[in-house]
User: What shape does this take?
Amino acid sequence: MGARGFRLGNSKEPVREHAQAPEAARKQWRRVANVGLLVGGYGIGQGAIFAVQTWLFAQGKFDLLSAFGTHFSFLMLGIFVIDAGSTTTLARQVARLPADGSRTAIWRLFWDTAVVRLSTAVVMAAGALMVALLPISDPLSRTYLLASVPGLLIWSANAVGMLDGLKLSGLSGLTGAIAFATSAFALALTADASPETAGFVLGAAFSLGHAVTVLAQWIVLIRLGRGPRWSRPCREGVVRSARDGFALLLQFIPGQLILRAQLLLSATFLGTEATALFIYAKQIVVAMTMLVGFVTRVDFPALVERAAACEHLGLSAILRSQVTSIVSAVTLALGTLLACLAALTVPQYGFSNAAHLLAAYSPSIVTISALLIMIQGMAAMADYAASAKIVAVSTLVGIAVSYAMIGPCGIYAFVIGEMSFHLLGSALMYLHLRRRAFAAAAKPVHHPA
Assistant: This one.
């Protein structure tokens, strides 16, 4: 008995460590799988659109490329607004539930958020209808917007935030590829169609893609035993979802607006061909940025847990928890620059012009990733209001710089404007985090008697 007791007593910690090892391995594998599925889904969806855009660019279809890029960009902004920040806020709320949290608690959060999203979708759909029916709307815009309205309404039922909060972000990314793939297929079909036909086909593909995406997300939840359960939305929950969601939107909407403002500036001052070139180069930059965003998105639930365990997350803690994102951003920026150097050897089809612009944009992959990492850290601490103010101010500066520089610098004014936005936003967030750290350190510590 003594020998047995001695063996057990001395092996207590090794046994515990041995038991923890498989769990750590499972978490790491889940993280790698989620990143892989997010990247794969994005590659399928955005990759399909990029391939068709490349074909249109080579064929000199600048009018269609410019029209599609502009309309699709504004519709995706509508999708972003309808989501009402729930990709982050709902994920944060679900991630904070106990590991054995009931389905009822999870779905109560969902239905509270769905009320906010549906209300927003109705407003966005009404706005799209008004623009489509304006006398000045061209035939492609009119049919595109009219056929896209169902997609805007359907997106209010998406389950992205729930899947992310349940640490299944890879599956939400994989299903999200559907909406992009359908638009890419429609774009290829309408290369030689009339404006009215092209607009209707592209709008119908937008609505169909988002409908199938939402259906696929719900099927995933059902297959995983997390199927829908009705819970009557409560006033307190709806107000909380609206407050947190729109506060978070105010952080990201300005950053989304700078791209749309630059699109309008390009169309107004630089013409169709330059706008098509800008859309094509910017598509690649956005793709690289999204790849980094997938890593930060997978790490977000763990960042929320860390924020819940302490009163304040300092800059060093935010950066340490997202080292993979930083390395990914630098690697992708360098890879983009090397690809541009290779593209300069292919002068035909105008790709050398795109390579010059994209090379100038490549550093912005690092700067915008740094800004997104800091925004994620502040979101984990629910510091939405301060982040929103900083991003709003920085965006206004970026738009102003773009407008001021478009005369002397042409299309490269947009690179200067965007870099100004990223660097100013990062600097202001750094100063805000320092003030929070000093305030937390200055608080008196109360010891129990």
Observations:
- The CA atoms of residues 80 and 188 lie 25 Å apart.
- Confidence is low (pLDDT under 50) at residues 1-12.
